[in-house]
From TrEMBL:
PANTHER family: COPROPORPHYRINIGEN III OXIDASE, RADICAL S-ADENOSYL METHIONINE DOMAIN-CONTAINING PROTEIN 1, MITOCHONDRIAL
Listed name of the protein: Heme chaperone HemW
Cell membrane among keywords: no
SMART domains hit by this protein: Elp3
Domain Radical SAM core: 5-245
Gene3D superfamilies per record: Aldolase class I
Coiled coil: none
Organism: Methylobacterium fujisawaense
Length: 391
């Protein structure tokens, strides 16, 4: 059992640390993450000092925890010097005990990695790398605004696998002009290079991004729902055949190679969000809270230097909030959810008649031990499924 402070239905899931490095070499036109380009460079020692301060502040709010996973996300954390990564991980270890064998993941882009830097990250304590490949053909990479080409992507995969036992890479499908046949060929090539884990995301057009404006103007056309479903079906089929079945809607792994940090989110565990624009979920004596930090890197930095942290929003989550979040996150997983845990959060059980109706419709199933999960038919319509269960 992992110690996570006050008694709460999420106490046994684990305690993770998310560190957000918000800087990128370029902003991709599809991206709505909190990422920023700073051509003048970044004062890494100054930001590291601020991260250390916010880590100390968060640790004071979360005594008695043992860290089970750390995730350095972004942005592009692989733009950091290995010494900066080492400083971040050392700061975490100074304030919390870190479980033996804890997963420590760093996101990297193929255009910002080389063998020496990977060795430096490994020496700093990183034991898992997630590469933002996104596509394996040069035309698509240009459309997606990526700074690498397919050859660099494949080289980065080889470098990562030579430096780390655990690796993953991301691809985006349902791209403009993509057909099931094209995706089938590309995914087969990816699976031939994947060691243990793949994240495969359907392209979504997010408000506020350049792609949103292009789509609105008719300059960007993505596959329709029917083709999108066919692409999804190809994804499930090929990954299962290759021994990397879906354990979450967009994530595929060999059994035992799942991302433990991301499982913490989906199983509704406890995690600290540190850095510009980071979100956290913490269990306090007053209940479970959600935290959000200042989004702007420079405003975050100034606020931390002034106040010791840059948490700008703290919300006490109601029983209904927690149950809804648990349902939304947990039903993304192939393992589904434990209805008893939902009832412990909500204060009342799920509606048995509604569960029976959804099982009859073929979108929900009961698993051994009483868990419920979305079926292959239910996974593509998960939002509607969650809304029906939560009603």
């Amino acid at each position: 059992m992992v110690s996570t402070g006050p008694d709460h239905p999420t106490r046994d899931v684990g305690f993770g640390i998310y560190l957000h490095w918000p800087f990128c070499a370029a902003k991709c036109p599809y991206c709505d993450f909190n990422s920023h380009v700073r051509h003048a460079g970044v004062d890494e020692p100054r930001f590291l000092a601020a991260f250390r301060a916010e880590i100390a502040h968060t640790a004071a709010r979360t005594p008695g925890r043992t860290v089970t996973s750390i995730f350095l996300g972004g942005g592009t954390p692989s733009l950091m010097q290995p010494a900066t990564v080492a400083g971040l991980l050392d700061a975490v270890a100074e304030h919390w005990p870190v479980a033996q064998g804890a997963e420590v993941t760093l996101e990297a882009n193929p255009s910002s990695v080389e063998a020496g830097r990977f060795r430096g990250y490994r020496a700093a304590g990183v034991n898992r790398v997630s590469l933002g490949i996104q596509a394996l053909d040069d035309a698509s990479l240009r459309t997606l605004g990526r700074l690498h080409d397919a050859a660099q992507a494949l080289e980065a995969i080889t470098l990562a696998q030579s430096a780390f036992e655990r690796t993953s890479f991301d691809l985006i499908y349902a791209r403009p002009g993509q057909t099931p046949a094209l995706w089938r060929a590309e995914l087969k090539a990816a699976l031939a290079r994947a060691a243990e884990h793949l994240s495969l995301y359907q392209l979504t057009i997010e408000p506020g991004t350049p792609f949103y404006g292009f789509a609105a103007a008719g300059k960007l056309v993505t596959p329709d729902d029917e083709v999108g479903r066919a692409l999804y079906d190809v994804t499930q089929e090929l990954c299962a055949e290759a021994g990397l079945p879906a354990y979450e809607i967009s994530n595929h792994a060999r059994p035992g190679a799942e991302s433990r940090h991301n499982l913490l989110y989906w199983r509704y565990g406890e995690y600290a969000g540190i850095g510009p624009g980071a979100h956290g979920r913490l269990v306090t004596a007053g209940g479970r809270i959600g935290t959000v930090t200042e989004r702007s890197p420079e405003a975050w930095l100034a606020r931390v230097e002034r106040e010791g942290h840059a948490v700008v929003e703290t919300e006490t989550l109601t029983a209904a909030d927690q149950a809804d979040e648990f349902l939304v996150m947990g039903l993304r997983l192939r393992e589904g959810i434990d209805p008893d845990r939902y009832a412990a959060l909500k204060g009342r059980p799920l509606n048995g008649n509604r569960i029976g109706m959804l099982i009859g419709d073929g979108v929900l199933e009961r698993l051994p031990g009483g868990r419920i999960a979305a079926t292959a038919k239910g996974a593509p319509v998960l939002n509607a499924l969650v809304a029906e269960l939560a009603a």
